[in-house]
Amino acid sequence: LSTELRSALVRAVGEEHVLVDPSLTGSYETDWTGRFSGRACCVVRPASTDQVSQLLRACADKHVPVVVQGGNTGLVGGGVPVGGEVVLSLTRLADLEDVDQASGQVTAGAGVRLSALQAQARAAGLDFGVDLAARDSATVGGLLATNAGGIRVLRFGSMREQVLGAEVVLADGTVLTRLSGLPKDNTGYDLVTLLAGSEGTLGVITRVRLKLVPQLPARAVALVAVENTASALSLLARLRTTVATLSAAELIFASGVALVRESAGLAAPFQEEYPAYLLVECADRADPTDALVEALGDCPEVLDATIAGDAAGARALWRYRETHTEAINASGVPIKLDVAVPVARLPEFIDRLPAAIGPAVTDVPDARTIVFGHLNEGNIHVNVLGVIGTSGGEDRAEAVEDAVLRLVGEFGGTISSEHGVGRAKTRWLGLSRTPAEIAAMTAIKRALDPEGQLNPGVLLSR
Amino acid sequence: LSTELRSALVRAVGEEHVLVDPSLTGSYETDWTGRFSGRACCVVRPASTDQVSQLLRACADKHVPVVVQGGNTGLVGGGVPVGGEVVLSLTRLADLEDVDQASGQVTAGAGVRLSALQAQARAAGLDFGVDLAARDSATVGGLLATNAGGIRVLRFGSMREQVLGAEVVLADGTVLTRLSGLPKDNTGYDLVTLLAGSEGTLGVITRVRLKLVPQLPARAVALVAVENTASALSLLARLRTTVATLSAAELIFASGVALVRESAGLAAPFQEEYPAYLLVECADRADPTDALVEALGDCPEVLDATIAGDAAGARALWRYRETHTEAINASGVPIKLDVAVPVARLPEFIDRLPAAIGPAVTDVPDARTIVFGHLNEGNIHVNVLGVIGTSGGEDRAEAVEDAVLRLVGEFGGTISSEHGVGRAKTRWLGLSRTPAEIAAMTAIKRALDPEGQLNPGVLLSR
Predict the structure, then answer these.
(1) Among A399, A322, A393, which residue's Cα sits nearest to residue A359?
(2) Which of B160, B235, B277, B366 has the fewest CB atoms within 10 Å distance of its CB?
(3) Which residues of B260-355 form beta strands (DSSP E)?
């Protein structure tokens, strides 16, 4: 950190918010998975958009690149330094306005935690459309920059669908402010939704204007036994035309249910064991149970079904799906992939997974693949257990990852459905994006950040 | 049209689809309002993405700019030539695939008419989220390029929220194909949603992948008398927290109701006359009437209300809102503005309209302003009658337009909520977009169309 740059940064945010001591910077330099880590030249903690603008101008002047960090809950290394960058931590931008009741919207600083936003919405009789497990740490800015999804995408969409405005600072310090919250505004390119999923490479989001959604307190949950993925899909297609309140459609398999039963001590969901299960949730203001029961009654795909009659029963059914993650983690460090393929091709993709993974783990007798996911989006989490930790495990993990992602490419799918590209997936980007698309993205990056100041190496290769 | 360019165009699409005779090109050279008109150097009618690519390459080689046209139903002159351009008419790209039941999605050529798309969706037990009056002419490509909204935005959003993929040809003929229909795909910038609302200036959309929505055949419609815009807003805010099936919230006023009553011979909706009315519609699979009645019962804003008990009654109530357009047109050519302001400021905006418009029409005793709109989006259609057609009417019309748009700018609103900027509104773009935003848009335009080949003068000034 040059004296000159340091003075400029201190001028912007004050001495105490320019961190250089490793005991202070450490937690900003490693992601929470522990997999990505690098030394920052310093960590700066602005408290306003104007400070962000001053900081970016100073870094641009000195040609020192910047890494943008929210709650540091990312999974692909997009928010931590490689070496020498200024880390811009936005958690002090935590101003959360009152809900605007007239529009059903709220404005939040980039550093506001998702759980705080949810609490604010709920206190106003509304709710926020995105929810995910990292809600107590993840920040609104990071959620938007990574276009976070989570468990309600089927009903409300991802962050891109929630955002109505933002304040953004470009690499040269230019501030774009668009916070009026106009749901219909056809005056040119929508720079705000372009920021969604840009992973900090186009601009620094400092504030966001978000739409809120109705509270839907009445739930009906069914766990439905089916023959296979194709039957689950056919069942979901049927429900789409007969039920208007669908809020989740989660696919799990016998292997996953066996794992969560042994790990969490759950009872068998049915007397018989079935190959696959679809967990369906409906949410509404009035009780949607009767409508769901009626709809399921007409579906030939249903081998057996159990429908929760109350909140406790609903939670019990959800545990078959939700304890997958902890059961998988409890069995050692897994190889984790977050991919999607066109929904109609999902059955074939899942059928071909074992043959794709097999060659990479031939000499690992305990290797075990657990698959589960969000059926409506064709989004599957592929977890391979028992490989990392064995001798040569890291190489095998990379071979597994490569084999699965190549298969995804072959199916016209995405190598990253939810988590983003970050630094972890850049080498595979070409499997999901054509050279023409990558060229167009690079042109847009150059248009808004010609010097490549923001998050270099994230999303697009350096 | 040079011989060389003509040969290249003919090579791409065949002799009969390169139109040069004025009797053939005429209908492509004037928009349907009759307000925008210009001579094209020719009109070409490609039938495939590959042909579009060849045509664009040929035009780029010869530096002849291109104007892209769908169903020619735009209102701001964005799809007709100024003089000398090649008009690219996409109506032959009318291939409409079967609905993909597994994903609830469909792929359509850019030239598919909205009504054809809706019919296809409905035959599959689903529906399309966007609907508007020009449905028999407007094309899917044009709807996406202009981010069309219409009467269901409250429930399903605009075109940007319906699109999951597109095939796009850039100015140099490069084809970007992204039609897998992955609702969750976090591999970089979303070029598809960037195209929504770009008005043909960034690329030519040739095919789109669209999500479908559930059919909601059961409707409940209420016409509610309220004191003013502020009460209507407060009522809507209340309904947002108590009703999950809202599908329309349309604001009309006593002046508009008087006009439609005299024009269409409608009966008085209530024994008494009230200053303002909110038309609320709920849509669901099961009858939402009871829930709406119950919700309205608790609202102090309700001065009187009539709730339709059946489909005929619902249509009758909708006529108070829907006949506004024909009643306005029947009284002569109106000055029409399509603007939005932040919802919370709408009452103040509407209060200030008369004083803003007044000075421009002081010597037009018959001038009459009719306002109505989509309350949830703060989107108001301002119609000034009795001015165009009087002596000096065109100048007065421009003065009215300028006064209203300046007031919109003052309120942080948008000069074009639905219709787009086109050629009609470019001079006022700076009222809704800051210089920094316009610079960012220009940079993106240059990144994807460096030579300015596509729709020059549309959206951004030349």
Answers:
(1) A399
(2) B366
(3) 276-284, 304-307, 335-340
Asked if A103 and B444 come within 8 Å (Cβ–Cβ), the reply is no
Average pLDDT, stretch B399-403? 97
| Residue appearing with tokens 């190889």 | A335
Distance from CA of A45 to the nearest CA of B (A): 25
| Interface ipTM | 0.96
Measured in angstroms, the CA of A30 and the nearest CA of chain B are apart by 22
pLDDT at A280 over 90: yes
Q: How confident is the model at residue B384 (pLDDT cuts 50, 70, 90)?
A: very high
Among A186, A374, A446, the residue to mutate for chain B (most B Cβ within 10 A): A186
To the nearest whole Å, the CA of A29 is away from the closest chain B CA by 23
Which residues of chain B does A284 touch, with a Cβ-Cβ cutoff of 8 Å?
244
Contact B241 A214 (CB under 8 A): yes
Residue B340 to residue A194, Cβ atoms within 8 A: no
Among B240, B342, B460, beta carbon nearest to A182? B342
Best of B184, B299, B345 to substitute, by most chain A Cβ atoms within 10 angstroms, is B184
CB contact under 8 A, B419 and A459: no
Residue of B nearest to A427 (CA): B187
Over residues A128-156, mean pLDDT: 95
pLDDT single digits (tens) B27-80:
999 998 788 999 999 999 999 999 999 999 999 999 999 999 999 999 899 999
Contact B356, B403 (CB under 8 A): yes
- Quick check: B332 pLDDT over 80? yes
Mean pLDDT in residue range A255-283: 96
Give B-chain residues touching A344 at CB under 8 angstroms.
100, 102-103
Residue B170: both structure tokens together: 């850039």
Residue B350 CB partners (closer than 8 Å, separation 6+): B229, B371, B380
Percent above pLDDT 70 for chain B:
100
The helix (H) or strand (E) run that includes residue A410 is: helix A393-410
Whole-number Å distance between alpha carbons of A270 and A293: 17
What's the pTM value of the predicted model, to 2 decimals? 0.96
Residue of A181, A188, A440 lying closest to B176 (CB–CB): A440
C-alpha distances in angstroms, B195 versus A61, A114, B43, B439?
Answer: 33, 29, 23, 18
Question: In whole angstroms, what is the distance from residue B340 CA to residue B413 CA?
Answer: 5
- Chain centroid to Cα B33, Å, comes to 14
Q: How far apart are CA A316 and CA A321, in angstroms?
A: 10
Letter for the amino acid at A460? Answer: L
Q: What share of chain B is helix, strand, coil (3-state, %, to 5)?
A: 40, 25, 40
Cβ distance B197 to A189 less than 8 Å, yes or no, reads: yes
CB–CB of A219/A314 below 8 Å? yes
Q: Which residues contact B309 (CB under 8 A, 6 or more apart)?
A: B289
How do the residues of chain A divide into helix, strand and coil, expressed in percent and rounded to 5? 40, 25, 40
Alpha carbon distances (Å) from A375 to A151, A236, A261, B183: 11, 8, 22, 11
> What are the start-end ranges of the H helices in B299-434?
311-330, 346-357, 393-410
Q: What average pLDDT does the segment A388-400 reach? A: 91
Chain B residue whose CA is closest to A229: B102
CA distance B128 to chain A (A): 13
Q: Which residue of A has its CA nearest to B414?
A: A185
Can you tell me the distance from the alpha carbon of A452 to that of B1, in angstroms, rounded to the nearest whole number? 43
Give A241's contacts in chain B (Cβ within 8 Å): 124-126, 214-215
> Token match 């919700």: residue?
B295
pLDDT (0 to 100) of residue A462: 80
- Yes or no: say if A223 and A269 are a contact pair by the CB < 8 Å rule: yes
Distance CA(B410)–CA(B432), nearest Å, equals: 9
**Residue B379, burial from CB neighbour count under 10 angstroms (0-12, 13-18, 19+):** buried
